[in-house]
Structures are given as C-alpha cells and as structure tokens.
Amino acid sequence: MMQQGQSPIQSRRMAERAGWYGRPVTPAGTAGQGKLSDLLQVMGVASDERPAGEAYAIPVRRLRTGASLFHEGAPADHLYVIQLGNFKTLRMAEDGYEQVLGFAGMGEILGFDGLSKGQYQTAAAALEDSRVYAVPVRALDTLRQRVPAFDRALQAAVSRELRRACEIADVMSAVAAEVRLARFLVQVSSQMVERGQSPRRLLLRMNRRDIASYLGVAHATASRSFGALADAGYLKVDNRAVEIVDLDGLKVCARNTRGTLEDMAARA
Amino acid sequence: MMQQGQSPIQSRRMAERAGWYGRPVTPAGTAGQGKLSDLLQVMGVASDERPAGEAYAIPVRRLRTGASLFHEGAPADHLYVIQLGNFKTLRMAEDGYEQVLGFAGMGEILGFDGLSKGQYQTAAAALEDSRVYAVPVRALDTLRQRVPAFDRALQAAVSRELRRACEIADVMSAVAAEVRLARFLVQVSSQMVERGQSPRRLLLRMNRRDIASYLGVAHATASRSFGALADAGYLKVDNRAVEIVDLDGLKVCARNTRGTLEDMAARA
DNA sequence: CGATCGTTTGACGGTGCTCAATCACCGTGG
DNA sequence: CCACGGTGATTGAGCACCGTCAAACGATCG
Fold this sequence. Notes:
By secondary structure, chain A is of the alpha+beta class. The first copy, chain A, is built from 9 helices and 12 strands. Chain A has a 5-stranded antiparallel β-sheet. Chain A has a 4-stranded antiparallel β-sheet with strand order 3-8-5-6. A 3-stranded antiparallel β-sheet of chain A has the order 10-12-11. In chain A, α5 crosses α7. The first copy, chain A, starts with 11 loop residues before the first helix and ends with a helix.
C-alpha cells in the first residue's frame, strides 16, 4: 500500500522542485501597505475598472507558518483578504478540542463572521508563510460607498464564504470515512480549477490532523482512508502530495452518502 | 423510559394549547405586500429610526407546511427574510440523500448564498405555515444605498447566517450521538433566549428525520439519543415537546467532544 | 546526527448503521 | 362511532466500521 519506490514524487521538497502546484502569479511584494487596486485584483474584480479609490492604501500583515491571524472571541476590528498563502479556520471547543471549519486561499475573505457581534466567532491560522490585506472594519462603510467595485467584490466574497461554510456539511454528511475524504479531495480539485490550475495534482498545505478534524474523523482513520483510496486506484499518495489518477471514479465514490467502498465494488 | 402516564404534556396539540413556545408577537398580517419599516423591525433594527424608505413596499410570500421556498440550483432572484414561521435549509446529494444544514426562524435571512453564482446553493423549505419578505436581488443595491438602516441590517443578518453555518460543524464535531443532540438542544435553547422566550421549554418544529440529518446520525439513533438524555435526567421528552430539566447539566454534557454519557458518569 | 513532529499501521472494543417490527397518532371514510 | 391506512417515533438484534491506544517509521530542522 502507498507505493514507495517507483513513485515519481519522493518528498514535499522534491514535489515543489518538480513544479507541483507551482506557485501562482505572486503579486509583487509590497511591504506594510498595499494598493486598493491590487486588493481588488486579488478579489477577482476585472482590473480594467479604474476606480476612484486608487489612492487608498490598505495595510498588509505578514504571518509565518502556524501563526494565528485572529483568535476566537477577540474584538473583530479587521476584515482580512488573503493576498498570498493558505489558512485554516477553526473553533476551539471548551474541552480544548480543535474543530477545523475550512481552508481558505488567495483572494478569500476571513473574519466576516465577527461583524454581527463585534467578536470573531472563529479563529484563523496560517498554514504557511502568508500575507493578508487588513481592512479596518471602521473604514468598511466608507470604502464600500466610495468604491462600488469593492462593494461588489465584498458581497461576492461573502457569498463565497457562505458556500464554503456548507462544504463541511457536505463532507460530514457522508457516513464512510473514505467517502468523506473523497468529497474533500473533489472540493480541493474544484478549487484548483477555479484558480486555473491542474485539477489532478494537489499539494495539500495542511497536515493529516487538520484534514481529519475537517472530515470529522480520527487522524488515524484519515490516514487509513488515504490508503484505501490509493488501493482502490483513485489516487497516488505521497505524504502531502496527492495525484488524482481517476477523477471521475473519485467523484462517483464521493456520491455515496451511505455505504463504503466495498459496497461500490459489489454494485459494479 | 420516556415517561408516559405522568407527563404533563401528552401531545403537540395539548402543548400548544398549554402555551408552550407560545407564538411570538405576530405582526399584523398584510397580504401580498409589506412595509419596509416592518421588514426592518423583523430584522431587529431599532424602530425609532424613520428612514426615507418608508414608502417602499416589499412583496410577501406565504408558504404552507412542507412547501419549498426555493430549490438548489434555481436562479437566485430573491433574498428572503422570514416574517413568520420556521424553515429548514438543506442540500440534496446526487444520490437523493437530503442533508439538513440548519434551521431558521423569524428575522433570519435566506438565500444569500446564491448571490455569488446567481444560483441558490441550498434549498429552503417551510416547517410550518410561514410568511417571508421577498426582496428582489435587482433592487438590492438601490435599497441598500437609499436606506442605510437596511444595509446595516443586511450585513448583520449575513454575519449571523455565517455564525449559523458553523453551528452544524459544532454539532457534528462531537463523536457521541447523545452529545450531538445535547449541543443541538443547547443551540435551540440559546436561540429561545435571544428571542426573549423560555430557554427550557422547546417545541421543536422539525421531525426526527430532519434532526437526525442535521446531527449526522441515523434517525433511529437520534431517537435513542433523546431517550438517553431523558434517562440521564436532563430532559423530559414527549414527541416534539421537550422540556430541559437540567440545563446546566446538559451544557456540561455538550462539552464532551469525545466520549459518551457513560464516561461522564464514570468521571463524576 | 539527534530531537521532534507528522504519518502510517496494528489490535481491540464499542458505538452506531442497517434492517425490521411495533406502537402511537391522525385524518378519512364507511 | 369505529375501522382503516399512513406517517412518524420508538425499540430490538446483529455486525461492520471507526475511535482509542500504542508502536514503528519517515521527514524536517537545527
């Protein structure tokens, strides 16, 4: 199980060298400030619009791997847009158990859930060295009024965040662990497509523990599920580098809300 | 188990007669139209503001029990605010399995997740006879610009919807079925408080099947969990009428991300 | 090269899913 | 008024799957 020797990819470092999930167009790195127009571009607004707000400067925050962007319960004074990198959002149960709610990448918005109560309802932590635009909540109304493009982008981003929120329910509604993992991988694959990258070669930024938490299973079970999907011929797995060999098959597998891989094989 | 004879509440009808979860202040029922000021009131905006938009009339839709407000994938042309009644939001898996994503009551917003793609990403169905304000998406921008109070209310409602979205993750992150149910009941209880009603006497509007789907367990398991919590002395259950006898105890139980009721008893 | 963290794999016991029967409740129609 | 069918809730039996515990292995970094 989990082919070792003949696999073309041996380690994460090698994977990155080989150009797996090659870094997207990295916006030229400005230090502590960013232009509003860059922010809008990251958020996916057509750049041929030249809004009046060109002059606005947006603070940029840098975070190292593992650093937390904001904590659950902290006063929600900023709204963040990811310029570069990847994050996880999570909630801490009172008994210290950490529930991962989702993963977010470039262009996605973080912290909006804090607006209604003035406190963040979730926490966010960087999965790798990252940069975010930090939009002060106090400036939100002004910005939205003066720059309609920003307003629209914000609305779309929030709606997207809502969609993301129900993806976790999608995953957890499956009973079998392998099916949950299959759904997760299909989600990641779709996001790759949205970003104009290969839907088959994934380099997961999060560790098994985070994935397991997101799937709602034990981390040992998550690991076994990777093995099961690999054995079934859907994937090639090497640590965090995952190649989807049979995407259609994986999607069929992901459909099965009830029943396991065995049942699928029996049905065929 | 599940005390029968001496229970003060025998049936749902009796429960309603007895004033359990007595209907909230029902806004005077206007037929096909509603005033914007009423809408704002339902959304929880202080009513002493008298916005310029008083003249706006908002269409009102009525739905009978079980009727669906919108389907998944349908063009998202309206945003809905619940005037009266209760709804469930759900997604249909390709294999026909129905995953309940959450429940929404008076003042809450439905359909916002459709804005980014122009199609509803979830479906919504009435759990009882209900009424909703139907705000045309095309009128959204205008309305928000002309009536700042509406804009703020909308932003708060969306943020609230995001909070609701992660409640399901909260529930599902528990391993034991009884703990999931306990968390759900604590959620419902909290909502009762937010609406200024008794946190102890619940009249659930949804059937066991919907609850089970929301909890991510089989409906037989959901039923057993009600029994278990009742046996443990936290609840009195009579069909959809639930009285929380020991709210603090229930909250303690809800904390246990891992481990079951047995473990709690052993620890004490 | 050692230390630490992350991943994989094993064994075992328990929980919950499936299937199915029974019961309670309700509206209908004879 | 009661017999009847339909829906929803509860309960039971059996077995597979997954969570817990534990150990070995692999990767990464100083």
